[in-house]
Amino acid sequence: MFIPEKRFCVYIITNFTKKVLYTGITNNLEQRITEHYMQRGTRKSFTGRYNVFYLVYYKYFDYVLNAIAWEKEIKDWNRKRKEALITAFNPEWKLLNEELFGKWPPDKLFHRGDRYSK
Question: Domain boundaries in the chain?
Answer without folding.
Answer: 8-116
